[in-house]
Amino acid sequence: MAFSQIPSVYLAFARTSFQMRMQYRVANLAGLTTNFFFLVVQIFVYTGFYAAAREPQPLSLTDIRTYVVLCQSFLMLMPLWGGRSEIAETVKDGSVALQLVKPVDFQAYWFADALGTAFYYLLMRSLPTFWLGKLIFGAVFPQQLDIGIAFAVSMLLAICLSIAITVSVRSVAFWTLDATGVNYIAHTVITFFSGLLVPISLWPEWVARIARWLPFEGLIDIPFSIYLGTLTGVDIWLAIGKQVVWTLVFIGIGRVLITRGFSRLVIQGG
Amino acid sequence: MIEVRNLSKSFKIYHHRKGFWGTFANLFSRKHRIVQAVDNVSFTVTRGEMVGYLGPNGAGKSTTIKMLTGILVPSSGSVTVNGYIPHRQRKENAKRIGVVFGQRSHLWFDLPVQESFELLRRIYRIPQEQYRRNVAMFDELLELGAFFQTPVRQLSLGQRMRADIGAALLHNPDVLFLDEPTIGLDVVAKSRIRQFIAQINTERQVTVVLTTHDLDDVEKLCNRVILIDDARLLFDGELATLRRMLSKERLLSVDYAEDYPDVRVPHAQITHREGTRVQYRFSPEKIRAAELIGTILQKFRIVDIAVQEPDIEELIKTVYEDNLILRKTSKII
């Protein structure tokens, strides 16, 4: 892939994906309601849990509320949890082979498409959800500007990591007719170890230790811990470094899977 | 332009055992059989030619097209298009070819046609000037203007096909592959698309390979046909030659002066009778047309008489149904 191609073609793909989502704004309203519903449920659970807790918890109630608001706001930016992908569908039904008649790098195309979608959800889901969360449940902003910037960088990396992981997982469909099982297992494991359900700092030490060795904390726990100020100083840079490394690893895995998948497809037929 | 040498493609089809234990057995050992989709096919297409690639369903047409476009790797034999080996030099090949699959659109489903075209402009890095000229031309010939701003999912089949064909030609490809471009279209839409393809072919010297079931497509567009059946090449040559070779049987239409009760004649079968009009079918090998007409004139008084060749749709249908005749024919070729 020529580097000079990136701005023109792949930016256009991202923009296209954004435009296509814009056509389904009513559906988005329904999605927004769902996000808000989960937000309310989770916050009530935590509030009850904190009221009953005898010992002081590692995160304050305000922090945990903010964490939940962040989760519900930014969840949709990541293709793993956000919306369905037409590209993944074509991999599933084999019609992806038709992509080969276009002079385009398929993985980059998929990436650009997911980024465009993420940008759409940032405007249409993240901002409204966060605004509601702040208004109703008192979610807070980062304490300093540089923390905000570090969060923005980490969040962008989380999205890239999420895309890289999703592309790899969905590419399994090149081999099995029915990738639902693989997706389901991957989905459960990733959701658990990302910290989406419960922040990792609240976990028992030994489970938390496992999570720290896995790539998935880079999706949720790392960016939000930076936001809340739980991670500080050098730890921020280490965490961001981890995200970068894992993103590159999964881009590599995805690349191998896609190349092999296509060559299987062109040898065996769709 | 296109060189195909001893091209073959076989697929492994896995046998799925049925039932509860069968599913288990599938996990450990899977029987498969080899299906030969394309078997030792060779042909050459020169620049600017328009070739009809014909065959019944499952004959191997699409498999061949997929190998020519780089979507499938041949099991053996070789393919070159524009000097490129499609499956090895996929992107280089892709830049020089245009592909339309009648069954599936290459446009972005949720986008207006214009946006899809803009994306293709970027993908193929089409210079602005060329892009503007092509869009103007396609708009004039295919009347894209009426639905240029409409999302593809809202287009009628005919509109979608016109948009798809325009899209495949935006980057001025040297070769255009059309896989059943008129499938499911009405007469008007078909003729518009045929006119367009013919015009592009003459004006730009675009090489066109067309697979179709619709023999009208072939008759209107192609001088040359390649006929395959059961993975093998049966015929490669002019349509007229094919017609001559296959038309072993001819039709004789007679309009009698009276309504004779018995109009049977030896060596000819009555295929159709409507009052004084009778149609016979006969084989020139058994009886020559002149003899047959002579017999009829001796027995009856007639108003009009005409010898016809069966139309090619009928011919090819008999070809497909009667493989034996074809096997012989193919040896003659």
Defining key terms:
heterodimer; A: 270 residues; mainly alpha; 10 helices; globular; B: 333 residues; alpha/beta; Rossmann fold; Alpha-Beta Plaits; 2 domains; 6-stranded mixed sheet; 4-stranded antiparallel sheet; 12 helices; 13 strands; disordered C terminus
Describe this structure in words.
The complex is a heterodimer of chains A (270) and B (333). With 270 residues, chain A is mainly alpha-helical. Chain A is built from ten helices and no strands. The radius of gyration of chain A is 19 Å and the shape is globular. Chain B folds into two domains: 242 residues, P-loop containing nucleotide triphosphate hydrolases (Rossmann fold, 3-Layer(aba) Sandwich); 61 residues, Alpha-Beta Plaits (2-Layer Sandwich), CATH 3.30.70. Helices cover 38% and strands 28% of the residues of chain B. In chain B, helix 5 runs antiparallel to helix 6. In chain B, the strands form three sheets. In chain B, strands 5-6-7-3-8-9 form a six-stranded mixed sheet, sandwiched between helices. Chain B has a four-stranded antiparallel sheet with strand order 11-12-10-13, with helices on one face. By secondary structure, chain B is an alpha/beta fold. The radius of gyration of chain B is 25 Å and the shape is globular. Classes of the chains: A mainly alpha (270), B alpha/beta (333).
Radius of gyration of chain A (Å): 19 Å
User: What's the quaternary structure here?
Assistant: heterodimer
Helix/strand order of chain B: EHEEHEHEHHHEHEHEEHEEEHEHH
Instruction: State mean pLDDT of chain A (0 to 100 scale).
Output: 88
* Beta strand % of chain A: under 5%
In short:
With 270 residues, chain A is mostly helical.
Task: Please give the structural blueprint.
The complex is a heterodimer of chains A (270) and B (333).
Chain A: H1 5-22, H2 25-52, H3 61-74, H4 86-93, H5 106-137, H6 145-170, H7 180-194, H8 205-213, H9 221-228, H10 233-268
Helix pairs in contact in A: 1-5, 2-3, 2-5, 3-5, 5-6, 6-9, 6-10
Chain B: E1 2-14, H1 19-28, E2 32-45, E3 50-54, H2 61-68, E4 76-81, H3 90-96, E5 97-101, H4 113-123, H5 128-142, H6 157-169, E6 175-179, H7 187-204, E7 207-212, H8 215-221, E8 224-229, E9 232-238, H9 239-246, E10 250-256, E11 268-274, E12 277-282, H10 289-299, E13 302-308, H11 312-321, H12 323-332
Parallel strand pairs in B: 3-7, 3-8, 5-6, 6-7
Antiparallel strand pairs in B: 1-2, 1-4, 8-9, 10-12, 10-13, 11-12
Helix pairs in contact in B: 5-6
